[in-house]
Amino acid sequence: MSVKITRAQFFFAATAVAALTLSACGGTADKAAETTEGGVQVVKVAASPSPHAEILQFIDDNLAAEAGIDLEIIEYSDYVIPNEVLVSGEVDANFFQTLPYLEEQGPKLGLKGTAGKGVHLEPLGLYSAKVKDVKELKDGAVIGIIADTVNQARALRLLESEGFVELPKSGDVNIHTVKKLKNFEWREVEGAQLVRSLQDVDAAVINGNYAQEGGLSFNKDAIVGEPTENNPASNLLVWRTEDDGVEKIQKLEQLLHSDEVREFIEKTWTDGSVIPVF
């Protein structure tokens, strides 16, 4: 089962959940009852719609029952709420982020999270609705870039490889610390809005999942792409460290690295936008 949640719906639901929690008793027993149906363990996972929720849905449809689990997939289109609901205990795990993102954002949210092994890579790409080659970008061009700091640093490394910026030798990497090597303007945009902003900028560096959701193909549409070999930005399952060893989470972690999932990724995303890393 897959459910899409907006930010507004999340905060309304969170208020309702808090009220119910205050009126409930026997919390541990109730939670156990909620997560087990007929001997099958329910695993609640917060995930980005594409490709994460699609991969989880494949597992739920084809592999989960035999492993004794049932996935409840809750989709979020931003990079903040999936960790918030993991901290609050509303989900058992999330599947949307990279290890560098977890290490940077986890402490800010009070999340003590354990990361599984890498499942797949979604290469960043420079996309444009106005030019077909990076050399066609003129002086004064406007370049869209994601607002969150971890993915922004990753995007800047791609732009460095194309001679747009020089990264600082130490310290934080963001649009305020890099040195411009060409004449252009920045436009910081929320990740989920990057594809829609393409008409308003000359080019934009877009994360793989947002590019897919917007109908862009990495191989066909990206005018520049980041290297895929030895890339640390693989996507992985994350759960609370206090839940290390929880059987149902470990079962899902194993299924995410199964031959069936690797084959599903390779057959579904033939354009190179999603690459298995195991």
TrEMBL record:
Keywords on record: Lipoprotein, Membrane, Palmitate, Signal
Membrane topology: Lipid-anchor
Chloroplast as UniProt keyword: no
PROSITE patterns reported in the protein's UniProt record: PROKAR_LIPOPROTEIN
GO cellular component: membrane
Signal sequence interval, chain numbering: 1-18
Family, similarity comment: Belongs to the nlpA lipoprotein family.
Main location: membrane
Pfam families listed in its UniProt record: Lipoprotein_9
Protein name: Lipoprotein
Segments crossing the lipid bilayer: none
InterPro entries to which the protein is assigned, alphabetical: Lipoprotein_NlpA (IPR004872)
Compartments in which it is found: Membrane
Lipidation (S-diacylglycerol cysteine): C25
PANTHER family membership: D-METHIONINE-BINDING LIPOPROTEIN METQ, METHIONINE-BINDING LIPOPROTEIN METQ
